């Protein structure tokens, strides 16, 4: 999550590499989705916790997609 946040900050303040950072952010989000599913499958978090995190990751992904456009 910290890497994703760092990419958002870089994209915001360094417009010359914005597209590159936002594409990398999208990849980071996909990796996070997989890791959270693994955490859930091992029963370390509840289903409602997974839904909450998934919604937040999806929201961040939609915002990053809008910034790319």
SSE inventory with pairings:
Elements lengths: L1 H12 L4 H24 L5 H22 L1
Helix pairs in contact: 1-2, 2-3
Describe the structure in your own words.
The two termini are 23 Å apart. The protein has helices spanning 2-13, 18-41, 47-68. It contains 3 helices and no strands. With 69 residues, the protein is an all-alpha fold. The protein is elongated and about 40 Å long.
Task: List SSEs in N-to-C order.
Answer: HHH
Name the poorly predicted regions: none
Q: Over all CA atoms, what is the radius of gyration?
A: 13 Å
Q: What coarse outline follows from CA principal-axis ratios? A: elongated
Q: How many separate helices?
A: 3
Total number of beta strands: 0
**Helix percentage:** over 70%
Mean residue pLDDT: 93
Q: What structural category do the secondary elements indicate?
A: mainly alpha
Distance between the termini: 23 Å
How does the major sheet shape up? none
What proportion strand?
under 5%
Keywords:
69 residues, mainly alpha, 3 helices, 84% helix, elongated
Quick rundown:
This protein is an all-alpha fold and 69 residues long. It has helices spanning 2-13, 18-41, 47-68.
């Amino acid at each position: 999550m910290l890497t994703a946040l760092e990419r958002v900050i870089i994209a915001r303040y360094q417009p010359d590499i914005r597209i590159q950072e936002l594409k990398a952010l999208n990849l980071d989000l996909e990796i996070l989705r997989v890791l959270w599913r693994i955490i859930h499958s091992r029963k370390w978090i509840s289903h409602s916790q997974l839904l909450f995190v998934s919604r937040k990751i999806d929201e961040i992904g939609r915002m990053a997609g809008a910034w790319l456009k």
